[in-house]
Specification:
By secondary structure, this protein is of the alpha+beta class. The protein has 17 helices and 23 strands. Strands 10-11-12-1-13-21-14 form a seven-stranded mixed β-sheet. Strands 16-20-15-19-17-18 form a six-stranded mixed β-sheet. It has a four-stranded antiparallel β-sheet with strand order 5-6-8-7. A hairpin with a 2-residue loop joins strand 7 and strand 8. Helix 10 runs antiparallel to helix 12, helix 11 (312-320) runs antiparallel to helix 13 and helix 16 runs antiparallel to helix 17 (476-493). The longest helix is centred in the last third of the chain and has 18 residues, at 476-493. The two termini are 33 Å apart.
């Protein structure tokens, strides 16, 4: 639900009237304004990361829960709740020991049984967890601080699965709930405690520093290292109107806006008290998905024609305007992941190559079939980019047209595998966080398993054989070599066309500093307020 700033004030007054704590006591215990950070992070309505993958839910969980391993700024898994671990000689049994000082916000200690239950619940839903459970022979505790994962066969990617969108560790009694039943207790063991008494659903949520949390000794590094809470309280305000949020930021009523609108960037840049900052430096990769089942793109030559036709700079400029927030991308794994490479990328040409595209459509036997591009008009960037694409196709003689709808309409129609005459589609645009693209196991868009796979339904058995191997290779060098083989097939087949990589800055007051830079996620530890 989107609410107005006026409604937030009313909700706050109502909640204040209802509170039973005497105002004098509140005044004595409430952190000062200088130790309180107010942020606009989005509408938090689901609190359980097993029930949803929404970024705002993961941000909530990063604040109050902890993880066994955490991905550092180079996307490598590092121990977090774990103090030490080892693997048996046959590489089938992993033993993990928890570090000292771990405790729940209700005062009870974190135990190995909590970890086992959390892994099992996560493993029923998350793609990485499902892979782990499919290979697992047994997951059990040895004592209160130690647990093991025994596998049927080696799984070289195990630590990556635990560190890369792995399980948030919950109390055993919470983790024993069905994955379809939402955990609402919000009792974690992380650096911040959820303040249930001050929760105002639809208006604001409050997080208080956990005095008993013991951070690791290492410096903060991505989602790894020491999670040190350097402010006493963080309040997430839900302000749906972006102009209202910006006005509050300018007035000093809030300190942070997660998604400022592009057309207000000049206003923010001209304010000496504000700053735009790109925290998600790897950003999103925007792509054009192709329906490989229907004409004309059931022919590989027609798909290759699109690869040569697209002018990434023109698309990105139409979508995002200022070139400092976008750049071209040619690797299926994005620009910045460990798997990124330049194999089979000779098709890329600045400005595109309409002549080669026209020739390839001719070789594909194109006979004027209608090409329908699903156009999400409520996603301004994709709408603008779609206008550029349809014009480029029409210019080389393709019978292309847009099918405007909101994003919900696009989502419904893209499931139709039939021809365009029966309500099907030819092309649509989407985007994906680049750090997800760096992990083949969890990126559903990087499969080519036909009609069992993601929209567009590309099928290539040779590629799928390589993709399955991803889970078993153990070293980064082996993974890089595998990535090159996969990318060669990917760009010969062309299940999609990349449109560019973009980043979106956050807006903050200059008094708020030292925010953690990670893709999509915004941890609230480490930040400071002057």
């Amino acid at each position: 639900m989107i609410i107005t700033r006026r409604e937030i004030i009313k909700a706050g007054l109502a909640a204040g009237t209802a509170m039973s704590i005497p105002s004098v006591l509140r005044a004595q215990t409430a952190p000062t304004a200088a130790r309180t950070v107010r942020m606009v992070m989005g509408d938090l309505s689901v609190f359980d990361p097993v029930v949803t993958t929404a970024s705002v839910t993961f941000n909530h969980c990063l604040a109050i829960y902890d993880t066994l391993f955490g991905a550092d700024s180079k996307f490598m898994p590092q121990p977090q709740m774990v103090s030490k671990w080892n693997v048996s000689d046959d590489k089938k049994t992993y033993t993990f020991e928890l570090r000292d000082g771990l405790g729940w916000h209700d005062g009870s200690p974190v135990t190995a049984a909590d970890c086992v239950a959390s892994i099992r619940r996560w493993g029923q839903v998350a793609p990485g967890g499902q892979l782990l459970m499919a290979r697992a022979r047994d997951i059990s505790k040895k004592d209160d601080k130690t647990f093991t994962i025994a596998l049927q066969e080696p799984l070289g990617i195990l630590l990556d699965l635990l560190g890369f969108q792995g399980p948030f560790i919950m109390r055993e009694k919470d983790a024993n709930l069905s994955p379809t039943e939402q955990v609402t207790a919000n009792i974690g063991s992380g650096p911040f405690k959820f303040n249930q008494a001050l929760a105002k659903p639809g208006a604001s949520f409050t997080y208080d520093r956990s005095d008993k949390y013991v951070p690791r000794n290492e410096p903060a590094d991505g989602l790894a290292g020491g999670k040190v809470a350097k402010v006493d309280r963080v309040i997430w305000e839900n302000i749906g109107n972006q102009q209202t949020a910006l006005a509050a930021l300018q007035a000093g009523e809030i300190d942070f806006v997660g998604t400022p609108p592009v057309d207000l960037f000049p206003v923010i840049e001209s304010d000496p008290h504000l700053e735009l900052q790109v925290l998600d430096k790897t950003g999103q990769d925007m792509f054009l998905r192709i329906n490989c089942l229907q004409k004309p793109f059931d022919n590989v030559k027609a798909r290759q024609a699109l690869l040569h036709l697209v002018d990434q700079e023109a698309i990105m400029r139409a979508a995002f305007g200022d070139p400092k927030y976008f750049r071209s991308v040619t690797s299926m794994f994005g620009n910045e992941t460990p798997a990124s490479n330049d194999e089979n990328t000779g098709w890329h040409k600045t400005g595109g190559d309409p002549g080669t595209a026209r020739q390839l459509f001719k070789e594909a036997g194109y006979a004027g079939e209608k090409v329908v591009i699903l156009d999400p008009t409520d996603w301004r960037e994709a709408d603008n980019a779609s206008q550029i694409l349809v014009a480029a196709l029409q210019k080389i003689g393709i019978n292309a047209e847009l099918a405007p709808s909101d994003w919900g309409g696009l989502v419904a129609r893209r499931a139709n595998k039939g021809p365009v005459e029966d309500g099907g589609w030819s092309l649509f645009m989407s985007s994906e966080a680049e750090w997800i693209r760096g992990n083949v196991v969890t990126a559903v868009t990087l499969s080519m398993n036909g009609e069992k796979g993601w929209f567009g339904w590309p099928q290539n058995d040779e590629y799928e054989t390589l993709r399955v191997k991803w889970a078993d290779v153990e070293t980064l060098e082996e993974r890089k070599a595998l990535a090159r083989k996969m990318q060669r097939i990917w760009w010969d087949y062309v299940p999609e066309v990349l449109l560019g990589q973009y980043v979106t800055p956050i807006a903050r007051r200059q008094t708020l500093t030292d925010l953690i830079s990670m893709p999509e996620l915004i941890p609230i530890w480490n930040m400071q307020k002057a």
